Amino acid sequence: MHYKVIEQAFTQDELDQFVNYWENNADSIYVTRGMNKLQEPWSLPIVQRIIKPVLDRYFDTSIKNLGDNIYRHDAPYYPHVDISKNIYPCFNVLIPIAQEKPVEQHFIIYDQWVNEYVGATWLGEWYEQQADFDNNKKRAYPYDDKIVEGIYSDKVLDHLTIQGKEHALFKGLTGVALDFKPGNLIIFDSKHIHATGTMTDGWKMGCTLRFAGDYYEYF
Question: For position 62, which CATH number holds?
Answer without folding.
Answer: 2.60.120.590
